[in-house]
Amino acid sequence: MLVHSPGEFSSAAPHSLKALSVRFVIALALFNMTSVRAGRVLLTLYAIKLGGGPLAVGMLAATFSVIPVLFSWMGGRWADRFGARWLLFLGVGGSSSGMLLPFFWPSLTTVFLAGLLSGLSMTFCNVSLQNLVGQMSRPEQRSKNFSNYTLAGSISSFVGPMIAGFAIDHLGYHFSCLTVLALAAIPLSLLAIHGGALPRGTGKSEHGGTLWHLIATPGVARVLIASSIAQVANDLFQFYMPVYAHDAGLSPSAIGVVLAMYAAASFVVRFVLPKIIAASSEHKVLTAAFVIAGTAFLLVPFVKGGVLLGVMSFMIGLGMGCTSPITMMMMYANSPPGRSGEAMGLRLTADNLTRLFGPVLFGMMAASAGLASVFWLNAVMLGSGGLFARTGGRGGKPG
Hints:
CATH class of the largest domain: Mainly Alpha
Helix content: over 70%
CATH superfamily of the largest domain: MFS general substrate transporter like domains
Number of helices: 13
Order of helices and strands: HHHHHHHHHHHHH
Oligomer: single chain
Shape: globular
Distance between the termini: 6 Å
CATH topology of the largest domain: Growth Hormone, Chain: A
Radius of gyration: 21 Å
Strand content: under 5%
Number of domains: 2
Structural class: mainly alpha
Protein backbone atom coordinates (compact mmCIF):
# COMPACT_ATOMS: atom_id res chain seq x y z
CA MET A 1 0.00 0.00 0.00
CA LEU A 2 1.27 3.42 -0.93
CA VAL A 3 1.76 6.05 1.73
CA HIS A 4 2.11 9.45 0.13
CA SER A 5 4.89 11.69 1.31
CA PRO A 6 5.68 14.22 -1.49
CA GLY A 7 4.47 17.64 -0.49
CA GLU A 8 3.23 16.46 2.92
CA PHE A 9 4.35 17.65 6.31
CA SER A 10 7.29 15.79 7.69
CA SER A 11 6.37 12.61 9.50
CA ALA A 12 8.01 14.14 12.56
CA ALA A 13 5.55 17.03 12.56
CA PRO A 14 3.37 17.18 15.66
CA HIS A 15 0.07 15.37 15.36
CA SER A 16 -1.78 18.48 16.59
CA LEU A 17 -0.37 20.51 13.68
CA LYS A 18 -1.64 17.96 11.19
CA ALA A 19 -5.07 17.83 12.78
CA LEU A 20 -5.27 21.63 12.85
CA SER A 21 -4.24 21.77 9.20
CA VAL A 22 -6.98 19.35 8.13
CA ARG A 23 -9.55 21.39 10.03
CA PHE A 24 -8.23 24.48 8.28
CA VAL A 25 -8.69 22.82 4.88
CA ILE A 26 -12.22 21.72 5.74
CA ALA A 27 -13.03 25.27 6.90
CA LEU A 28 -11.76 26.60 3.57
CA ALA A 29 -13.96 24.07 1.78
CA LEU A 30 -17.03 24.96 3.85
CA PHE A 31 -16.82 28.72 3.27
CA ASN A 32 -15.84 28.46 -0.38
CA MET A 33 -18.53 25.91 -1.26
CA THR A 34 -21.15 27.97 0.60
CA SER A 35 -20.18 30.97 -1.51
CA VAL A 36 -20.29 28.94 -4.73
CA ARG A 37 -23.65 27.29 -3.90
CA ALA A 38 -25.17 30.68 -3.06
CA GLY A 39 -23.74 32.15 -6.25
CA ARG A 40 -25.16 29.41 -8.45
CA VAL A 41 -28.66 29.76 -7.04
CA LEU A 42 -28.41 33.53 -7.44
CA LEU A 43 -27.19 33.28 -11.03
CA THR A 44 -29.92 30.80 -11.97
CA LEU A 45 -32.68 32.98 -10.51
CA TYR A 46 -31.08 36.12 -11.94
CA ALA A 47 -31.11 34.56 -15.41
CA ILE A 48 -34.85 33.92 -15.07
CA LYS A 49 -35.36 37.48 -13.80
CA LEU A 50 -33.54 38.81 -16.87
CA GLY A 51 -35.87 36.90 -19.20
CA GLY A 52 -34.05 33.61 -19.63
CA GLY A 53 -36.32 30.65 -20.37
CA PRO A 54 -35.88 26.95 -19.61
CA LEU A 55 -33.32 26.57 -22.42
CA ALA A 56 -31.21 29.43 -21.08
CA VAL A 57 -31.36 28.01 -17.56
CA GLY A 58 -30.31 24.58 -18.86
CA MET A 59 -27.41 26.11 -20.75
CA LEU A 60 -26.38 28.04 -17.64
CA ALA A 61 -26.36 24.80 -15.64
CA ALA A 62 -24.08 23.30 -18.29
CA THR A 63 -21.67 26.25 -18.06
CA PHE A 64 -21.09 25.40 -14.39
CA SER A 65 -19.48 22.12 -15.52
CA VAL A 66 -17.62 23.21 -18.66
CA ILE A 67 -14.43 24.44 -16.99
CA PRO A 68 -14.29 21.51 -14.51
CA VAL A 69 -14.43 19.11 -17.45
CA LEU A 70 -11.68 20.94 -19.30
CA PHE A 71 -9.31 21.78 -16.45
CA SER A 72 -9.79 19.47 -13.44
CA TRP A 73 -7.09 17.05 -14.56
CA MET A 74 -4.66 19.85 -15.44
CA GLY A 75 -5.50 21.61 -12.17
CA GLY A 76 -4.47 18.46 -10.34
CA ARG A 77 -1.12 18.42 -12.15
CA TRP A 78 -0.57 22.05 -11.19
CA ALA A 79 -1.46 21.26 -7.57
CA ASP A 80 1.19 18.51 -7.54
CA ARG A 81 3.80 20.82 -9.04
CA PHE A 82 3.07 24.22 -7.48
CA GLY A 83 1.10 23.41 -4.34
CA ALA A 84 -2.44 24.42 -3.47
CA ARG A 85 -2.23 27.96 -2.11
CA TRP A 86 -2.12 29.96 -5.34
CA LEU A 87 -4.55 27.66 -7.13
CA LEU A 88 -6.98 28.26 -4.28
CA PHE A 89 -6.46 32.01 -4.55
CA LEU A 90 -7.10 31.78 -8.30
CA GLY A 91 -10.21 29.67 -7.87
CA VAL A 92 -11.87 31.62 -5.07
CA GLY A 93 -10.80 35.00 -6.44
CA GLY A 94 -11.87 34.21 -9.99
CA SER A 95 -15.29 32.96 -8.98
CA SER A 96 -16.04 35.79 -6.57
CA SER A 97 -14.84 38.52 -8.92
CA GLY A 98 -17.11 37.05 -11.56
CA MET A 99 -20.10 38.12 -9.45
CA LEU A 100 -19.10 41.73 -10.12
CA LEU A 101 -19.97 41.30 -13.80
CA PRO A 102 -23.76 41.06 -13.36
CA PHE A 103 -23.51 43.62 -10.55
CA PHE A 104 -22.06 46.30 -12.83
CA TRP A 105 -23.55 45.10 -16.13
CA PRO A 106 -26.76 43.12 -15.53
CA SER A 107 -27.46 40.92 -18.57
CA LEU A 108 -27.75 37.27 -19.53
CA THR A 109 -24.28 37.50 -21.07
CA THR A 110 -22.62 38.58 -17.82
CA VAL A 111 -24.61 35.97 -15.88
CA PHE A 112 -23.21 33.28 -18.18
CA LEU A 113 -19.69 34.66 -17.81
CA ALA A 114 -20.09 34.59 -14.03
CA GLY A 115 -21.26 30.98 -14.35
CA LEU A 116 -18.10 30.07 -16.23
CA LEU A 117 -15.97 31.70 -13.54
CA SER A 118 -17.93 29.80 -10.90
CA GLY A 119 -16.73 26.66 -12.61
CA LEU A 120 -13.17 27.98 -12.24
CA SER A 121 -13.56 27.97 -8.46
CA MET A 122 -14.98 24.45 -8.37
CA THR A 123 -12.19 23.25 -10.64
CA PHE A 124 -9.13 24.53 -8.82
CA CYS A 125 -10.57 24.55 -5.30
CA ASN A 126 -12.12 21.09 -5.32
CA VAL A 127 -9.09 19.29 -6.68
CA SER A 128 -6.67 21.22 -4.44
CA LEU A 129 -8.73 20.83 -1.26
CA GLN A 130 -9.43 17.13 -1.80
CA ASN A 131 -5.74 16.50 -2.41
CA LEU A 132 -4.82 18.48 0.72
CA VAL A 133 -7.16 16.37 2.85
CA GLY A 134 -5.29 13.28 1.66
CA GLN A 135 -1.85 14.84 2.08
CA MET A 136 -2.46 16.14 5.60
CA SER A 137 -4.14 13.00 6.94
CA ARG A 138 -2.45 10.05 8.50
CA PRO A 139 -3.59 6.84 6.77
CA GLU A 140 -5.75 5.79 9.71
CA GLN A 141 -7.45 9.23 9.77
CA ARG A 142 -8.19 9.47 6.06
CA SER A 143 -11.70 8.03 6.18
CA LYS A 144 -12.71 10.42 8.98
CA ASN A 145 -11.23 13.47 7.27
CA PHE A 146 -12.69 12.74 3.84
CA SER A 147 -16.07 12.14 5.50
CA ASN A 148 -15.79 15.50 7.26
CA TYR A 149 -14.87 17.13 3.96
CA THR A 150 -18.04 15.80 2.32
CA LEU A 151 -20.05 16.86 5.39
CA ALA A 152 -18.81 20.40 4.75
CA GLY A 153 -20.21 20.05 1.24
CA SER A 154 -23.56 18.89 2.62
CA ILE A 155 -23.74 21.85 4.99
CA SER A 156 -22.88 24.29 2.21
CA SER A 157 -25.59 22.79 -0.01
CA PHE A 158 -28.11 23.64 2.70
CA VAL A 159 -26.75 27.03 3.84
CA GLY A 160 -25.68 28.47 0.48
CA PRO A 161 -29.08 28.40 -1.28
CA MET A 162 -30.76 29.69 1.90
CA ILE A 163 -28.41 32.68 2.05
CA ALA A 164 -29.04 33.38 -1.64
CA GLY A 165 -32.80 33.24 -1.18
CA PHE A 166 -32.87 35.58 1.82
CA ALA A 167 -30.42 37.96 0.14
CA ILE A 168 -32.57 38.19 -2.99
CA ASP A 169 -35.73 38.80 -0.92
CA HIS A 170 -34.17 41.53 1.23
CA LEU A 171 -31.51 43.09 -1.03
CA GLY A 172 -32.64 42.30 -4.54
CA TYR A 173 -30.69 40.50 -7.24
CA HIS A 174 -28.27 43.38 -7.81
CA PHE A 175 -26.86 43.68 -4.29
CA SER A 176 -27.06 39.95 -3.65
CA CYS A 177 -24.03 39.68 -5.92
CA LEU A 178 -22.07 41.57 -3.25
CA THR A 179 -23.34 39.14 -0.60
CA VAL A 180 -21.76 36.25 -2.50
CA LEU A 181 -18.58 38.32 -2.83
CA ALA A 182 -18.57 38.91 0.94
CA LEU A 183 -18.91 35.16 1.57
CA ALA A 184 -15.90 34.50 -0.67
CA ALA A 185 -13.86 37.06 1.30
CA ILE A 186 -13.75 34.61 4.22
CA PRO A 187 -11.72 31.85 2.49
CA LEU A 188 -9.61 34.50 0.75
CA SER A 189 -8.73 35.99 4.15
CA LEU A 190 -7.93 32.56 5.59
CA LEU A 191 -5.61 31.86 2.67
CA ALA A 192 -3.89 35.24 3.01
CA ILE A 193 -3.27 34.72 6.74
CA HIS A 194 -2.52 31.00 7.00
CA GLY A 195 -2.10 29.76 3.44
CA GLY A 196 1.69 29.84 3.68
CA ALA A 197 1.56 26.82 6.01
CA LEU A 198 -0.04 24.61 3.37
CA PRO A 199 2.12 21.87 1.80
CA ARG A 200 4.15 23.01 -1.19
CA GLY A 201 4.33 21.29 -4.54
CA THR A 202 7.14 19.14 -5.82
CA GLY A 203 8.34 21.88 -8.18
CA LYS A 204 8.93 19.26 -10.87
CA SER A 205 7.62 19.55 -14.39
CA GLU A 206 7.64 15.78 -14.90
CA HIS A 207 5.06 13.63 -13.15
CA GLY A 208 6.40 10.18 -13.90
CA GLY A 209 4.17 9.29 -16.79
CA THR A 210 1.35 10.27 -19.11
CA LEU A 211 -2.37 10.41 -18.46
CA TRP A 212 -2.72 6.89 -19.80
CA HIS A 213 -0.05 5.64 -17.39
CA LEU A 214 -2.09 7.16 -14.57
CA ILE A 215 -5.31 5.50 -15.75
CA ALA A 216 -3.44 2.19 -16.08
CA THR A 217 -2.26 2.37 -12.45
CA PRO A 218 -3.87 -0.56 -10.60
CA GLY A 219 -7.14 0.49 -9.03
CA VAL A 220 -7.43 3.92 -10.68
CA ALA A 221 -9.72 2.92 -13.58
CA ARG A 222 -12.01 1.01 -11.24
CA VAL A 223 -12.37 4.04 -8.96
CA LEU A 224 -13.12 6.24 -11.98
CA ILE A 225 -15.89 3.89 -13.10
CA ALA A 226 -17.37 3.56 -9.62
CA SER A 227 -17.26 7.33 -9.04
CA SER A 228 -18.86 8.08 -12.43
CA ILE A 229 -21.67 5.59 -11.81
CA ALA A 230 -22.34 7.18 -8.42
CA GLN A 231 -22.39 10.65 -10.01
CA VAL A 232 -24.93 9.53 -12.61
CA ALA A 233 -27.12 8.00 -9.91
CA ASN A 234 -26.98 11.16 -7.82
CA ASP A 235 -27.86 13.42 -10.77
CA LEU A 236 -30.69 11.19 -11.95
CA PHE A 237 -32.19 11.15 -8.48
CA GLN A 238 -32.12 14.95 -8.33
CA PHE A 239 -33.64 15.29 -11.81
CA TYR A 240 -36.16 12.45 -12.00
CA MET A 241 -37.39 11.75 -8.47
CA PRO A 242 -39.29 15.09 -8.43
CA VAL A 243 -40.78 14.24 -11.84
CA TYR A 244 -41.81 10.77 -10.71
CA ALA A 245 -43.23 12.05 -7.41
CA HIS A 246 -45.24 14.69 -9.27
CA ASP A 247 -46.65 12.06 -11.63
CA ALA A 248 -47.53 9.98 -8.56
CA GLY A 249 -49.73 12.85 -7.34
CA LEU A 250 -47.58 14.23 -4.52
CA SER A 251 -47.89 17.90 -3.57
CA PRO A 252 -44.88 20.22 -3.87
CA SER A 253 -44.38 20.16 -0.10
CA ALA A 254 -44.48 16.35 -0.05
CA ILE A 255 -41.95 16.22 -2.90
CA GLY A 256 -39.73 18.53 -0.87
CA VAL A 257 -39.90 16.16 2.09
CA VAL A 258 -39.03 13.19 -0.14
CA LEU A 259 -35.95 14.99 -1.46
CA ALA A 260 -35.00 16.12 2.04
CA MET A 261 -34.94 12.47 3.18
CA TYR A 262 -32.11 11.86 0.68
CA ALA A 263 -30.09 14.77 2.05
CA ALA A 264 -30.74 13.73 5.65
CA ALA A 265 -29.59 10.16 5.02
CA SER A 266 -26.42 11.36 3.25
CA PHE A 267 -25.61 13.63 6.15
CA VAL A 268 -26.20 10.96 8.79
CA VAL A 269 -24.25 8.19 7.08
CA ARG A 270 -21.19 10.41 6.70
CA PHE A 271 -21.06 10.86 10.46
CA VAL A 272 -20.78 7.14 11.08
CA LEU A 273 -18.86 6.22 7.91
CA PRO A 274 -15.37 6.17 9.52
CA LYS A 275 -16.55 3.66 12.14
CA ILE A 276 -18.21 1.50 9.49
CA ILE A 277 -15.03 1.47 7.38
CA ALA A 278 -12.88 0.71 10.44
CA ALA A 279 -15.02 -2.36 11.11
CA SER A 280 -14.92 -3.50 7.48
CA SER A 281 -13.11 -1.99 4.46
CA GLU A 282 -13.64 0.67 1.82
CA HIS A 283 -14.42 -1.91 -0.85
CA LYS A 284 -17.00 -3.77 1.22
CA VAL A 285 -18.74 -0.58 2.33
CA LEU A 286 -18.80 0.81 -1.21
CA THR A 287 -20.24 -2.47 -2.50
CA ALA A 288 -22.97 -2.38 0.15
CA ALA A 289 -23.68 1.28 -0.67
CA PHE A 290 -24.23 0.47 -4.35
CA VAL A 291 -26.46 -2.50 -3.48
CA ILE A 292 -28.62 -0.48 -1.05
CA ALA A 293 -29.07 2.42 -3.48
CA GLY A 294 -29.56 0.10 -6.46
CA THR A 295 -32.27 -1.86 -4.63
CA ALA A 296 -34.12 1.35 -3.84
CA PHE A 297 -33.90 2.55 -7.46
CA LEU A 298 -35.26 -0.83 -8.57
CA LEU A 299 -38.26 -0.51 -6.25
CA VAL A 300 -39.14 3.14 -6.94
CA PRO A 301 -41.39 2.47 -10.00
CA PHE A 302 -43.50 0.10 -7.84
CA VAL A 303 -44.08 2.78 -5.16
CA LYS A 304 -46.61 5.62 -5.31
CA GLY A 305 -47.24 6.88 -1.77
CA GLY A 306 -45.29 9.71 -0.20
CA VAL A 307 -44.19 7.72 2.85
CA LEU A 308 -42.78 4.83 0.83
CA LEU A 309 -41.10 7.20 -1.63
CA GLY A 310 -39.53 8.91 1.38
CA VAL A 311 -38.20 5.53 2.54
CA MET A 312 -36.78 4.84 -0.94
CA SER A 313 -35.21 8.31 -0.96
CA PHE A 314 -33.64 7.66 2.44
CA MET A 315 -32.21 4.32 1.24
CA ILE A 316 -30.73 5.97 -1.85
CA GLY A 317 -29.25 8.70 0.35
CA LEU A 318 -27.65 6.13 2.64
CA GLY A 319 -25.94 4.50 -0.33
CA MET A 320 -24.99 7.61 -2.28
CA GLY A 321 -23.82 9.41 0.84
CA CYS A 322 -21.01 6.86 1.16
CA THR A 323 -19.76 6.95 -2.41
CA SER A 324 -18.16 10.38 -2.58
CA PRO A 325 -15.85 10.16 0.48
CA ILE A 326 -14.95 6.53 -0.25
CA THR A 327 -14.04 7.12 -3.91
CA MET A 328 -11.98 10.16 -2.85
CA MET A 329 -9.92 8.18 -0.34
CA MET A 330 -9.58 5.21 -2.71
CA MET A 331 -8.37 7.45 -5.53
CA TYR A 332 -5.83 9.10 -3.24
CA ALA A 333 -4.62 5.73 -1.93
CA ASN A 334 -4.25 4.30 -5.45
CA SER A 335 -2.50 7.32 -6.98
CA PRO A 336 1.21 7.04 -7.84
CA PRO A 337 3.65 8.99 -5.61
CA GLY A 338 3.73 12.68 -6.56
CA ARG A 339 0.59 12.43 -8.70
CA SER A 340 -2.18 12.44 -6.11
CA GLY A 341 -3.49 15.86 -7.20
CA GLU A 342 -3.56 14.72 -10.81
CA ALA A 343 -5.46 11.57 -9.82
CA MET A 344 -8.02 13.57 -7.84
CA GLY A 345 -8.41 15.92 -10.79
CA LEU A 346 -8.96 12.99 -13.13
CA ARG A 347 -11.75 11.72 -10.88
CA LEU A 348 -13.43 15.15 -10.97
CA THR A 349 -13.09 15.25 -14.77
CA ALA A 350 -14.86 11.91 -15.09
CA ASP A 351 -17.60 12.99 -12.68
CA ASN A 352 -18.24 16.22 -14.55
CA LEU A 353 -18.33 14.48 -17.91
CA THR A 354 -21.09 12.22 -16.61
CA ARG A 355 -22.82 15.27 -15.15
CA LEU A 356 -22.84 16.89 -18.60
CA PHE A 357 -24.00 13.95 -20.67
CA GLY A 358 -25.72 11.53 -18.27
CA PRO A 359 -28.97 13.46 -17.72
CA VAL A 360 -29.31 14.12 -21.45
CA LEU A 361 -28.92 10.46 -22.40
CA PHE A 362 -31.27 9.28 -19.68
CA GLY A 363 -33.73 12.02 -20.63
CA MET A 364 -33.87 10.60 -24.14
CA MET A 365 -34.46 7.14 -22.66
CA ALA A 366 -37.27 8.42 -20.44
CA ALA A 367 -38.92 10.04 -23.44
CA SER A 368 -38.81 6.84 -25.51
CA ALA A 369 -39.15 4.03 -22.95
CA GLY A 370 -40.86 5.68 -20.00
CA LEU A 371 -39.72 7.04 -16.67
CA ALA A 372 -39.53 3.63 -14.99
CA SER A 373 -36.74 2.60 -17.39
CA VAL A 374 -34.51 5.35 -15.97
CA PHE A 375 -34.78 3.95 -12.43
CA TRP A 376 -34.34 0.35 -13.54
CA LEU A 377 -31.30 1.02 -15.71
CA ASN A 378 -29.81 3.04 -12.89
CA ALA A 379 -30.29 0.04 -10.60
CA VAL A 380 -28.40 -2.13 -13.10
CA MET A 381 -25.58 0.44 -13.28
CA LEU A 382 -25.31 0.57 -9.50
CA GLY A 383 -25.18 -3.22 -9.37
CA SER A 384 -22.32 -3.12 -11.86
CA GLY A 385 -20.62 -0.47 -9.73
CA GLY A 386 -20.91 -2.79 -6.76
CA LEU A 387 -19.07 -5.49 -8.71
CA PHE A 388 -16.29 -3.07 -9.62
CA ALA A 389 -15.97 -2.02 -5.98
CA ARG A 390 -16.01 -5.62 -4.73
CA THR A 391 -13.22 -6.72 -7.06
CA GLY A 392 -11.19 -3.49 -6.87
CA GLY A 393 -7.43 -3.37 -6.57
CA ARG A 394 -5.38 -1.51 -4.01
CA GLY A 395 -6.83 1.06 -1.72
CA GLY A 396 -8.78 -1.10 0.67
CA LYS A 397 -7.04 0.20 3.76
CA PRO A 398 -4.48 2.90 3.11
CA GLY A 399 -1.56 2.44 5.33
